[in-house]
Amino acid sequence: MQKTKTKTFEQIVEENKGKIYRICKIYAVSPLEPQDLFQEVIYAIWKSISTFKGNSDIDTWVYKITLNVCLRSKQKLDKKNFKTVHLESIQFVPIEIPFEKTQQEKYKALTSCISSLNENNKSIIILYLEKLKYKEIAEITGMTENHIAVKMKRIKKILLNCITNKL
Amino acid sequence: MWNNEQKDIWKDIKDTWNEQPQSEKINIQVSKLIEEFKSKISQFEKNSINKDLAFITTSVSQFEKDSIKRDLNIISTFLKKVTSKLKKKK
User: Fold this and answer.
1) Domain limit, last residue, from A60, A95, A130
2) ipTM score here?
3) Do residues A104 and A70 both lie within one domain?
4) Do A81 and B36 touch (CB under 8 A)?
5) Range(s) of the domain holding residue A122
6) Of A60, A66, A128, B20, whose CB count within 10 A is highest?
């Protein structure tokens, strides 16, 4: 049982670490680092893995946990009491990949514009950019598919305006 | 026409998001990580409780604050009355 849990956990973490970190980077606000949030998400996955009943898709489940941890951490962040646990077994190795300047600027503008959105809209657009369907976004956020469609129209307009102004 | 243009723009935005420049490579040693979770579990829980407490403290509404203030005023007036009566009796 424990072996299966470890194996499933390993598979989930390996397959999803990239997208988890992408989301953590958006939600991390000083003094919180994306790495701290990432660790918390991984811990939350470990804690909840035995309760995953397979009612939803594993990807949807991971997104749900990631967004919950990120939103909770932001709401509850108390700078005075804030402490992080450093896990030795998770290592972030700096790498340098040559990237086109224009692409870098686009990415900067995009993340800055996403960060300026309210929490609800931020979650929705992140899930949309992660290529999830409206039905899946609705399942994760607890809204109806129609509500997501309406909201998406507005968010797209806001985001596009913001990016155009920045570039 | 407008629709196609929009589609292209959003495809480009999605690509920018999904192919974002990676500044770090994440290496995870799962078996060691599980051991670490087990040994550091109390610290994780403690931090989580601290965050919950901080959240509750900041979430006390103004209404509740005012209500506590009123109660404190009533108690202090009552105490003042009692102490003045006691003084008079002496």
Assistant:
1) A95
2) 0.83
3) no
4) no
5) 99-167
6) A66
